[in-house]
Known about the structure:
Two copies of one chain form a homodimer. By secondary structure, the first copy, chain A, is an alpha/beta fold. Chain A has helices at residues 22-37, 52-56, 61-68, 85-99, 118-126, 141-156, 160-174, 188-193, 221-226, 256-269, 286-296, 304-309, 326-330, 334-350; strands at 4-11, 44-48, 76-80, 105-112, 196-198, 201-202, 211-220, 232-241, 278-280, 363-370, 375-383. In chain A, helix 7 packs across helix 11 (286-296) and helix 10 packs across helix 11. The two termini of chain A are 19 Å apart.
Amino acid sequence: MRDVAVIGVGMTKWGELWEKSLRTIFVETALLAVEDAGIDKIDSMYVGCMSSGLFAGQEHIGSLFADYLGRKPVPATRVESACCSGGLALRQGFIEVASGMSDVVLVGGIEKMTDVGGNEATYALGTAADQEYEGFHGLTFPALYAMMAVDHMHRHGTTREQLAMVAVKNHENGSRNPLAQFPFKVTVDMVLKSVLVADPLRILDCSPITDGAAAVILCPADMARKLKKPVVRIAGSGQATDTIALSSRKDLSWMESTHLAAKAALAQAKRKIGDMDLFEVHDCFTIAEIMIIEALGLVKKGQGGKAVEDGLTAAGGKFPVNASGGLKAKGHPVGATGVAQAVEVVEQLRGHAGERQVKGAKRGLTQNMGGTGGSAVVHVFEAE
Amino acid sequence: MRDVAVIGVGMTKWGELWEKSLRTIFVETALLAVEDAGIDKIDSMYVGCMSSGLFAGQEHIGSLFADYLGRKPVPATRVESACCSGGLALRQGFIEVASGMSDVVLVGGIEKMTDVGGNEATYALGTAADQEYEGFHGLTFPALYAMMAVDHMHRHGTTREQLAMVAVKNHENGSRNPLAQFPFKVTVDMVLKSVLVADPLRILDCSPITDGAAAVILCPADMARKLKKPVVRIAGSGQATDTIALSSRKDLSWMESTHLAAKAALAQAKRKIGDMDLFEVHDCFTIAEIMIIEALGLVKKGQGGKAVEDGLTAAGGKFPVNASGGLKAKGHPVGATGVAQAVEVVEQLRGHAGERQVKGAKRGLTQNMGGTGGSAVVHVFEAE
């Protein structure tokens, strides 16, 4: 397998983009990545997207985007794994370049979620859960994560305030991200007084419904060096599944698929979790980030809430988590999230993250997952 | 890149499977492939499926199927490219094994289409077209292929009867396939008198709405040899895109993406089209098969209709096309089709195709496409 590098990244402002179509959002974002890479050649494309069928009445978006990007007849393949779609598209691009099948691969992630009403969006997102054993009975994602939160609070003594502190930290970070959907700060008090969604989760515990895209361009590391681009390698990629239904898990508040994916990615990179300088993780709900930092091994099981309270994961902390603002403040166009995490880590490792810059960052990790963790993917990035 | 072989295949009876759920159909089929492979190890899974979201209210099916197959935590990724989803899932599995990332990969294709009504199924299938420039204006797939048929008849003198002869041939072949949805014979007269769908296409020119799945297991060719299994290698894989909308094409009745995908697959296999002993192609409508055999280079442009009339593509002809019965008689659960084509070719190259056996077949080709050819994938198989 060949070493793979990211030589181009692109991201556009996220939000409620009613004036832009699905294809426009993709093309604008992909063109930024092409411009950043500085080469015009693309051999192949992957697109991560959860449900353009339910959100936009459009499947077959590999063909659509290759066409509208002016890149037909290049191969273009869409990858879906609920909110993990973007991360898995990145992994497919990584495998294709590593295999030698293609040299330059464009990986995009996208979701356009606000052209349907709230109930339809909730239904569409709900198709990431087990339709027969969860969706059919009326369970939505806030409800599923609320059960995980209650379990974590019961087992480990995690407090309602600690959940709120995840939102406070990520909005603090997001206030420094000009592309974020909600670049404003919140306080613990604001979170605790925000509208109740599914007890104990409130609206400011939840990531928003977002339109947006992100794109990266991959090539062999040797090619990147020859092009004299700043070289950020994908040193490791790990993927795992768990039961799709929460009811089949032994431990409701342990993210096994994330744990295994991280183990595989770090093993491939020949690194330990402590070697990483920053982390972009899948905080679809505040409780998710707490469970993820435990599953990654940043803290011991049950200590995630306390770690946030102690500032371990803050911008200036030992393990900066979601310097971008995370899903919480940056927004969560589900299929785009996994690719946007890669964009942030590459910008950080290049030292181009502006006000959000994690000083001296040389290695970073992304963690993206689907549903309640039925699928997860972790990538390790290293600057040369 | 490593040589890749198919060591297991599985397919179950296709039709209107109202008594079986999406997950049941997948698991039953995948288990047949596992049994056929004779090894219990699976490192990774791919699933081709066009729109489980619109047809079954269920996305995230990589996680669902890995779980219900009892294979979690193996990585499992869904691939979508409309009716080309199965073929692209096969290609992703091929790349993963070729890259050295995994040894044993299960590739499944599935669609469960009959749990929704006819209008909903037509809408769901229509999302493979350009939603803004085709779907929005009421164009459905029979209408799009009808325009291609009219264009082919006008340019090349293809006759209404020649279209019917594709259906007659494929139903003749399908009558020997116990897993086919419609294993009965039809006559030219029956086709010409069947219900008009979109002039000139009649109901017996169209592939049906089907529930079904197919699965194959891939591994390095060296491993297959050590296991003393009959070795069928995937010698080449080619993929291409075209404009998603028919209105953007220079030539309505030329399948450019199929032409380019075949060229790439044959180049990788170091073979010519004439070296192939049998062909499974994407006859979603009778006119499609005529255009495909031209694009593959079996006959010159415009000669597809005459070739069918002359028996060139019949079971005993020079180039047997769709010995399985094709999409027309076997059925067309869209995401499953590309994988089922591989199952048929492998069975043929092993000499296990029963009454449908193409005598002495050693090399075969599959061609699978999405929409009106916005995406296409071709694989070349060789028995050792």
